[in-house]
What we know:
This protein is an alpha+beta fold.
Amino acid sequence: xxxxxxxxxxxxxxxxxxxxxxxxxxxxxxxxxxxxxxxxxxxxxxxxxxxxxxxxxxxxxxxxxxxxxxxxxxxx
Length: 76
C-alpha cells in the first residue's frame, strides 16, 4: 500500500502542517485529501512525486474552500 503525505500550506507558501495518508491508490489518496480540506492550499505527495495541488480559499471567498483538484502529474 503506497504511503502519501498531505502538506497544508500557509499564505506565504510554506508548510504549516503535514498529514500522512494510507491509501491503496493515487485516486483514493486524492479522495482522502479532499475530505481533509480546511481552506488552506494543500499539496499531495507520494515520496518524491507531487500528485496534486489543491488550491485554498481566494481572498474573496474566505468562507468556502474551492475543492478543486489539479490533475495528478507524475514524471519518472
